[in-house]
Design brief:
The protein is α/β, with parallel strands linked by helices. It folds into two domains: 26-81 and 165-409, L-arginine/glycine Amidinotransferase, Chain A (5-stranded Propeller), CATH 3.75.10.10; 84-161, Arginine deiminase (Pentein), CATH 1.10.3930. It has 13 helices and 20 strands. The protein has helices at residues 3-8, 57-73, 81-88, 92-102, 105-121, 125-134, 149-153, 194-204, 245-257, 294-297, 321-329, 343-351, 372-380; strands spanning 26-31, 77-80, 136-137, 159-161, 174-177, 180-183, 212-214, 227-231, 234-239, 263-268, 282-286, 289-292, 301-307, 313-315, 319-320, 335-338, 358-361, 364-368, 384-388, 405-409. The strands form six sheets. Strands 8, 9, 10, 13, 14 and 15 form a six-stranded mixed beta sheet that branches. The chain starts with a helix and ends with a strand. Mean pLDDT is 93; it is low at 1-8. Bound molecules: arginine. The site of arginine (ARG) has 15 residues, from loops. Keywords: Arginine metabolism, Cytoplasm, Hydrolase.
Length: 413
């Protein structure tokens, strides 16, 4: 671009990226439209890849398109991970990092790793993004001159680059707190490479060039599904199957150091598949209201963490979660809407992500239509429910909140 062009163009307004609540009107969100990575799932690998079945990709895409459309119809700008990834890969540094993150020498041996790195380096950004997301099998490797032992001994359908079917759940691999983004540290091998992609998107996509980081290069496990922005300055962090006590503690320490929070509530949750993140049992639906699984309502507790003013962290509690949350938020009480009906229905609807709602504004949430009773209760409580289909999307055990990473929300007045 010439100097003349630069001078004559009116600079585009910088997009605002900032999230300090769960319910402020949603402006920009990062989703991932599922793609070929879902086609890698088989009955033999789905457990390890954290899916409860083998989804039908075409239908999952239709369901996802409808989800994105509901958000757009409410004025939300939808960014798709696959697209911003391709755009970020225009930067050679992003390509270098991407190739290195995808090629695992321990899995491939030196020869094959070298050959694959040079093959991937020569690919167009779009094709490289395809491999980064959907992985690559041994039979898809480029024809080698001399076949390595690794190559000869692997089955054609084995993965040379592992696929990332859980990219669908953009909530977990990055999280915004105020005007900063934290690249998380995913606990399970099936997902750990996802953050290499979010990291390079935020580092090299021009849109995010001014974005500051939170949580630095910490490696203690922390997943976005465990992080709830209860109100500006007040975070809840679930500690269970994914986020560890060390993850919650170092996240709190770094949020305090950056002035992003004054209180972090560390909330123990059952170490079970059904409750892999805090947002599977509790999400906010209004400034002062949550939808919550009744089985945990009375037992959920919290360790309030606060800065001691000299770089340390003061640990309080454990206290009952609801009271501790209301106190930290400076409200009288947090209203609770139960996951629907009797204990069995509640258990079914919790499993089907009835608690996993995404607020697009205070009192307006996106929810899976199948959770009939929970949605009815939300409406009885005055919450507007935007229903979406999720029969295929839900087979990965994630709902509207898991499938979205808010990048901009209006600040609540
Ligand atoms: N924020 C969430 N609840 N995410 C759900 C993630 C589901 C995904 N299959 C996993 O097991 O990791």
């Amino acid at each position: 671009m010439s100097a003349h062009q630069i001078a004559s163009e009116t600079p585009a307004a910088e997009p605002i990226h900032r999230v300090d609540s769960e319910v402020g009107p949603l402006r920009t969100v990062l989703l991932h439209r599922p793609g070929a990575e879902l086609k890698r799932l088989t009955p033999r690998n789905n457990d390890q890849l954290l899916f409860d079945g083998v989804p039908w990709l075409g239908r999952a895409q239709l369901e996802h398109d409808a989800f994105a459309e509901v958000l757009r119809s409410r004025g939300v700008e939808v960014l798709l991970l696959g697209e911003v990834l391709v755009e970020a890969l225009a930067d050679p540094r992003a390509r270098f990092g991407a190739v290195h993150s995808a090629v695992d020498e321990r899995q491939l041996g030196l020869d094959l790793a070298d050959a694959l790195r040079s093959h991937l380096t020569g690919m167009k950004a779009k094709d490289l993004a395809g491999v980064l997301m959907a992985g690559m099998t041994f039979e898809e490797l480029p024809a080698a001159e001399g076949a390595s032992l690794v190559r000869r001994m692997h089955q054609p359908a084995d993965f040379a680059v592992n696929p990332l079917p859980n990219l669908l759940f953009t909530r977990d691999s990055s999280v915004w707190v105020a005007d900063r983004v934290a690249i998380t540290s995913l606990a399970l091998p099936a997902r750990s490479r996802e953050t290499a992609l979010t990291d390079l998107i935020y580092a090299y996509h021009p849109r995010f060039s001014r974005t500051g980081r939170a949580y630095g290069a910490h490696s203690a496990p922390l997943e976005g599904g465990d992080v709830l922005l209860l109100s500006p300055g007040v975070l809840a962090v679930g500690v269970g199957e994914r986020t560890t006590p060390a993850g919650a503690e170092s996240f709190a320490r770094s949020a305090f150091a950056d002035g992003l929070a004054h209180t972090v509530l560390a909330v123990p949750i059952e170490q079970e598949r059904a409750t892999m993140h805090l947002d599977t049992v509790c999400t906010m639906v209004d400034r002062d209201a949550v939808v919550m699984y009744p089985a945990v309502r009375e037992t959920l507790s919290a360790y309030p963490l606060r800065p001691d003013g000299s770089g340390g962290v003061i640990v309080d509690g454990p206290l009952p979660f609801l009271g501790a949350a209301a106190e930290a938020m400076g409200i009288e009480r947090l209203r609770v809407i139960d996951t629907g009906l009797d204990a069995v229905t509640a258990e079914r609807e919790q499993w089907d992500d009835g608690n996993n709602t995404l607020a697009v504004a205070p009192g307006v949430v996106v929810a899976y239509e199948r959770n009939v009773e929970t949605n009815a209760r939300l409406e009885d409580a005055g919450v507007e429910v935007l229903r979406i289909a999720g029969s295929e999307l839900g087979s990965g055990r994630g709902g509207p909140r898991c499938m979205s990473c808010p990048i901009a929300r209006d600040t609540l007045g």
